Amino acid sequence: MIDPGRFLEDLRTLRTFGATGTGVVRPSYSEVDLAARAWLRDRYADAGLKAEIDGVGNVFGRSPNPGPALLIGSHSDTQPTGGWLDGAYGVIVGLEVARAIRESPDTADLAVDAVAWIDEESTYVSCLGSRAFCDLVEPDELVDATGLDGRTLAEAQADAGLSGTSARWDERNYAGFLEAHIEQGSALEASGDLIGVVTAIVGARTMVIRFSGQQNHAGTTPMRLRRDAGMAAVRLGQAIDARFGELTGERTVWTIGDMRFEPGASSIIPGSAQLTLQFRDPDAALLARFTDEVERLAAEMSAATGVDITIEPDGRAIEPVDMDPTLHDALAAAAAETAPDRWTSMPSAAVHDAMFLATRMPAGMIFVPSIGGISHDFAEDTSDADLVRGAQTIADAAVKILRN
Amino acid sequence: MIDPGRFLEDLRTLRTFGATGTGVVRPSYSEVDLAARAWLRDRYADAGLKAEIDGVGNVFGRSPNPGPALLIGSHSDTQPTGGWLDGAYGVIVGLEVARAIRESPDTADLAVDAVAWIDEESTYVSCLGSRAFCDLVEPDELVDATGLDGRTLAEAQADAGLSGTSARWDERNYAGFLEAHIEQGSALEASGDLIGVVTAIVGARTMVIRFSGQQNHAGTTPMRLRRDAGMAAVRLGQAIDARFGELTGERTVWTIGDMRFEPGASSIIPGSAQLTLQFRDPDAALLARFTDEVERLAAEMSAATGVDITIEPDGRAIEPVDMDPTLHDALAAAAAETAPDRWTSMPSAAVHDAMFLATRMPAGMIFVPSIGGISHDFAEDTSDADLVRGAQTIADAAVKILRN
């Protein structure tokens, strides 16, 4: 039902906004991001949708048909040095599915809205567009938000002529939200499946652990008299890794993404240190258990070393979210037709806009394979056949959902 | 025999060159460092010594008496934010002892030379002055040496009107070298001793260990598929600490002074990491054993994690050096008179100019207590009584050495 050629052509046109080598540099509120949003608004209008850029920069193409409407899309902003498909793929799927359903006499009565969220990639505030739409942004998150170019969020929005006030989920009667996305991992490639129907999006905890000891001379200070902040950080990092390995669930991942010592000189015992720990799991109870273990191990390490250790959350806790079972089943039924015996159900290990939409309406997601599992990198890619198959799956599922 | 008032006054005058709060900022080849060297040259001349600033900036005051001469001194440059006594104390001890011995009819026939070495604190090249004097500087060390102000060593020397060529140890017949220094640790304060007679200066190895893995998404990359450079660094750091704790000698110290992850973001598995490891011991065989253990543990960790690990020395290996037993005994005999029952023999855990002099002539050192064990800090201090006692100990030992 969709037009594969037109779909791929629009996807490649969106890529030209910020194209850099094989990748794309299109962070939210940049000149190319705003130009891409204006282009998307025009594409929605060309498709006969009521096109609008809201006050935070989200682009909507609303069906003139009465609801309940199915909202389909993703985000069109990228990482500072991003791939061409992360977000952009789901945006053009939304455009093509809304357009194709309007064009076909069989489905022209159905209400499909398309959307391109802003700032999922956290140039200013993580998932700003979808969270603002869902009324899930706390005012204090906006105050100090500053982009890579030094502008505040308020300045970036003012420069773009935006009011800062988004459209809201409760202004229209929605049947649900669908998002297509690249997997950003290698599970599909490893299993040979072509479509992953998402069951849940994992929750995450990110924390900064700070160590405060006593800076001193690395030669003249005997081991027994040291309060070495760096060594306490190393020992706690290893203890957390070992303990998480014992407690791990099937899908648990944990990462020490950063570690820093001060002053960081070869002949000086570090007086302070910090590490950033993140862990993710679809099970909220396991996330709580891990948090407790980190606190227990930190207290033990502090007692053993005389180094003060504090733990602070880095950003908000992300709670695991289940996708809607009815939408999951509609997507699975569609996948069984577009990819017979080559689709699977799976959790998402990455955050997506659908996590927030799921708190306001039924939400569903699918993944298409990432070549080599690579994302957030210029090398990010997916085959044309897989891209088209995902779009067709969303289109088929949309009709099933709206007809039931 | 020495003049305590004159000694302390000269020490305080030297402090004024670069005085900053209670500390001193007098890095080598800075304007205040060069002014202090001109002042020292004039003090040596006033004391009846043949005063000269050599081509690297070392200041000598040579006795007109024939040798063998006893050379006494330390360095007059400081850390970027240094204390007032580190180096300066031993320089003024050299001035006062050479002066007092010349003045006293009983000792006026003895040959005592005074010296103020340059760049012990490594603004350009660690222990440059004393190592150049001993012909221990490799030409390639000088090529890229650059100071904190961005000047190369050659530029700094040219700005100071210096040739770059130092005086040499073999241009005069030396009986030995004596250095007085603050302890820079708290062993004397803890034991209640007032003089520490140095037996040996510990050797040190410093190495940068680099980890190269695979940068990836911290959510979508399962634990079993990771090659996490950061976690390999944490685990190896902990394994080294644990193993060194089993092998340790009485005086062994080890420090991970720095650790860095790239790219250092909470949601990204580090693709590369590095840590800086330093360990010190007076026993060369134990230093070699530790080096072997680091290499063995790194190979095991690389095999276990799939992360490439390389080990590179950071600067030159510092070999442990014994002080001369005859000079040690002369210093001990003097200390037994200036600090009856309150002196001890001890190794030095820090590098000093005497390490290099010891390769060319008999060398001896004493320590005086550091209040609170603090050094390389504006708060560095020692009581006047302890400062004077150290100077008198060097003077008494000098006479014993030159009379035997």
| Tally of structural domains of chain A | 2
**Number of distinct beta strands of chain A:** 17
The first-level CATH class of the largest domain in chain A is given as Alpha Beta
Fraction of helical residues of chain A: 25-40%
* Helix vs. strand class of chain A: alpha+beta
The N- to C-terminal Cα distance of chain A equals: 19 Å
Oligomer: homodimer
How would you describe what is shown here?
- The structure is a homodimer of 404-residue chains.
- Chain A is α+β, with helices and mostly antiparallel strands.
- Chain A folds into two domains: 4-202 and 320-403, Aminopeptidase, CATH 3.40.630.10; 203-313, Alpha-Beta Plaits, CATH 3.30.70.360.
- Chain A has twelve helices and 17 strands.
- Chain A has helices at residues 4-16, 31-46, 88-103, 128-133, 139-143, 153-159, 187-191, 229-247, 284-305, 325-338, 354-357, 384-403; strands at residues 19-20, 23-24, 50-53, 59-62, 69-75, 112-117, 174-182, 195-201, 203-212, 216-217, 253-262, 268-269, 272-281, 308-313, 321-322, 343-348, 363-368.
- In chain A, strands 3, 4, 5, 6, 7, 8, 15, 16 and 17 form a nine-stranded mixed sheet that branches.
- In chain A, strand 3 (50-53) and strand 4 form a beta hairpin.
- In chain A, helix 8 (229-247) runs antiparallel to helix 9 and helix 10 packs across helix 12 (384-403).
- The radius of gyration of chain A is 23 Å and the shape is elongated.
